[in-house]
Amino acid sequence: MPAVGRDIPHDSAAGHVTGESLFIDDIAPSHGELLVDVFGSPVAHGTIRSMDLTEAAKVPGVVALFTAKDVPGRNRFGPVLQDETLLAVDECVYIGHPIVLIAATSRRAITIARQRINIVMDELPTILSIEAAIEAKSFIGPKRSINRGDVDAAMTASPRKLSGSMGVGGQEHFYLESQAAIVHPGEGGTFTVQSSTQHPTEVQALVAEVLGVSFNAVTVVTKRMGGGFGGKETQAAQPAMYAAIVAHHTKRAARVVYGRDDDMAVTGKRHPYLSYWDVGFDEQGRILSLVIDYFSDGGSSTDLSLAVMERTMLHTDNAYYLPSARITGQVCKTNLPSNTAFRGFGGPQGVANIENIMEAIAGELGLDALDVRRVNVYGVNDRNVTPYGQLVKNNTLHGLFDTLERTSDYRARRAEIDGFNAVSRTHVRGLSMTAVKFGISFTKQHLNQGNALVNIYTDGTVLVTTGGTEMGQGVNTRVRQIVADELGVSYDTVRIGATDTSKNNNTSPTAASSGTDLNGAAAVDACSKLRSRLGVFAAKLLSDGDSGLFASPDNVVFRDGRIWDDRRADVSFAFREIVQQAYLARVNLGERGFYATPGVDYNRETGKGTPFLYYTNGTCAAEVLIDRLTGETKVTRVDLLMDIGMPINPGLDRGQVVGGFIQGMGWVTTEELKYNVKGTLLSHSPTTYKIPNISDLPDVFNVDMYPNPDNVVSIKRSKAVGEPPLLLGIAVWTAVKDAMRYISKDAFTTLHLPATGEEVLMRMTPARAAQAATPVK
Fold it and tell me: Are the C-beta atoms of 548 and 541 separated by less than 8 Å?
């Protein structure tokens, strides 16, 4: 039975449940291993006047203290621009900016040493918001733009116009395993790094650079992560670099594991955004012209902020055709930890903005927002080119809208909600249906590559290693399924090894929803070479000289653990037997595979190109119930429909759809980052930062897949599913906005994201006061 298409459990499921799965801090300490932590800046922006480490160095258990002068190699780093200082030299640019590394034999010693470090700082002016950055012209990188058509003329000619602004909040990754790394010094100036990272190659490069050694002196191994969500794409490198500095100087293994509060306080988040928009449209709600200017909070350094902004701009159209558009993006520099990649990578912010505009147009025209969306949705044979010039192929958006409108009983529920809201004085309900068209590929062309190593052993078992990293999403399980079918063996005979830079070099991060696409395709390439080689050898064994039947490699079949000639099925060999014979005949049983995504290219200078191989599409109808007196919001029903092609593992893919949606729902409702006026994160623990709980699940939660066998451009006709469902969580926010439409125009137009209970109550308060003064009839 083929493995692809089956609900095979996650290959670490049993280990997770029993506790046998090892994460970084589960690894037993090696002899003499040191614990490492940092002393960070107490101010958001300041210069170091003096530093005294004398008393801290006397703390029993403290082995060493290191500052910037002790960095053996490069102290500045960054994935795009090297504008981040690992250990502060003179200036600190956010609260927690590392100044001193503490290496000790116990946590208690580190805690005491922190208290005895004496640093005097002179505070400097801070920038802690997008608005302040705009006023100060504090920016990172150039302003980018995507343009189509004569925007100003189209705006002037539009029968109807609207303008507005929108604030979009950030989001904490809240992975279960915090940032962690262990570095083991080896002989000859080599180092082995065990890292909880989505990007082993980047960790390898940055550890080598901070130590001043060559890349081949550093090996990075990643067995798994306890969650990543983008937060470990670039920022897993810092703890590895801290540990590496200590290991270099002490010649002892060093371990860095962030505490939960510290992790939340000093790592980057999803980028907050502020946007200003103008839209021109006709009486049916069809957009004729759109101008939107984005400003994001990049934090104190570049990190991936420019690429995140780029994807925001590329997803501003979402599912809708924009005949003329001017989309600009500018990253702001503030005195907060550098913001970074997060599931969706800027796409959610762009989609939230266009969906907000759809709601605004509907409100202005007195139409149902679904009808406005339907009139703007991309066409199949026309109105099917994006503002950046990519043709939207295999467009299933109309079918998704049609199907979900019917299966969710949208029209009848809308009428029911109208009736309920007309009479209820205590609650208000909202309903909204949104879509997603998410581009799959890295927008940096060179990242669209993957490699795999497939080794067959003489007992017939197979070991695969790829550059893909497992963070719970199931990439290893899917690759096992793919390899099993390619070699015609059972799933149980295939094992995936830990990601290791000594086996898979120069790999891309596991991100952009492309983990299976890239690494699975590379594994297929390796298997194809092995199967071809074994096919030639097997053809000789299957040939029968006496009967004159000579097998051809083209006729050799690999299936169900056996190999035979398709013209003579009565004679076959076990896969294991062929492998053993091939080994004795000195046939190579190991192979590397490589894959480069074809046809993707985007020119960020012109804002034109084909940045994506394909799109993953979906629709979602969400309904909410809001308490008029408290602002408490309950998501009562969600109907979700995804086009993910032909799933490699339907069960895992369903898990990704549900999990992604819930994470998106949290972003738009309960998850709020709160800072004080000094730049200290106040919501830095599970007690103050509210991710969705089990009680927040919708009472009715219908999830279904839209059949689409026509996605022929990706592996096994599947579609990436890691990020797209998160963007459908925006339907919950637009449902809240829809409910505000029944309250007042002001409540409707001024709602920010996230729509926390506090935010909702604040928007309703003026309307509540007016309502209280109106006699009940």
Answer: no
